């Protein structure tokens, strides 16, 4: 049920806008309050009168006048809801969201809001599959915007493929999921993940074998419990966790800056395999082969992100979780590492090649805390993530 939840429903132009009427009806039936906003082109497909009649609320229109501003300014309107739903969302509105344009009421609300956003796109199949729209989709997902649909099928324009607006009932299910409360609802958690790449010169870099699988699984598990997740990732193949605020970085220094910018947070989970060193003097010129000479590299130490945040006077999250990738004396080294860095928990694992853990789907970890070392059985990285997320939820209360 959506009892007393407030939904700001932005309806943009497109033949699928007629389905928004049924969506309003279904949301109202479940007890939600719906404040409709129509773009100028939406008014070509549905009338403000029918929309506001079903919503039993005033329909805000693109051509809103000063009375509206006096009643409820656009900033307040954009923040008064528990969730903003854009259904249907045109390719154009998605593009405007990506570039932060605010040239009408709908796009201004989307730019001014700090409320979670759920987008239900609807457009011609070619427009949906166009690289520009797919780029925009990836960017918006990275900004933490949720999506439902589009579905595949016959389209009003006579073509077939993905682009149909999700059915109202599917959108309602997505709304319920987006508003579902979990034990971590209202908690902000920063997760680092993946390797870092440290440039040697413009074409070469030093990397490590981290796939980002464990960090991504942890971000997903935290999101599933309702947390707001800032996911700071180095270059990893793993698909990004949907619904997280994704910050892509390359180097350890960039990761440090991104984590610092993401504070304050209730918890930090530092699963990234951060390079300990960077190459001194890595510049803009490619190192050329010189007859008979072998180049030598000098290294500088990278900032230790986990230690910096653990020991921060101003920005330390209530719970800081580090990882320890070890090949020898796992528990002894990880126990020392926890004390040295000053984090609360260390998730230690043996990354010797024969374990197949680095880059694999499974993990066997030991959780080290004030209470000692707790051995978890070998399991899928997803299962480790869920167990860790449950522990974090229990700890943060
Ligand atoms: N870490 C970090 N910043 C660094 C290095 C490591 O935040 N510059 C974090 C990792 O994300 C992990 C923990 O510190 O949570 C331990 O990483 P690990 O590579 O095991 O330890 P190191 O500090 O690199 O120590 P060593 O390589 O000597 O084992």
Spell out the blueprint of helices and strands:
Blueprint: E1 6-11, H1 19-29, E2 33-38, H2 48-55, E3 60-61, H3 66-71, H4 74-79, E4 83-89, H5 91-99, H6 105-112, E5 117-121, H7 125-129, H8 131-142, E6 146-147, E7 151-154, E8 160-164, H9 168-179, E9 188-193, E10 198-199, E11 205-206, H10 213-224, E12 228-233, E13 245-248, H11 252-262, E14 267-270, E15 277-279, E16 299-301, H12 305-310, E17 319-326, H13 330-341, E18 345-350, E19 362-363, E20 365-369, E21 372-375, E22 379-380, H14 381-396
Parallel strand pairs: 1-2, 1-4, 2-3, 4-5, 5-6, 9-12, 9-14, 12-13, 14-17, 17-18
Antiparallel strand pairs: 7-8, 10-11, 15-16, 18-20, 19-22, 20-21
Helix pairs in contact: 1-2, 1-9, 5-8, 10-14
Bound molecules: cytidine-5'-triphosphate.
Cytidine-5'-triphosphate (CTP) is lined by residues 192, 252, 270, 272, 274, 276, 302, 304-306, 322-325, 337.
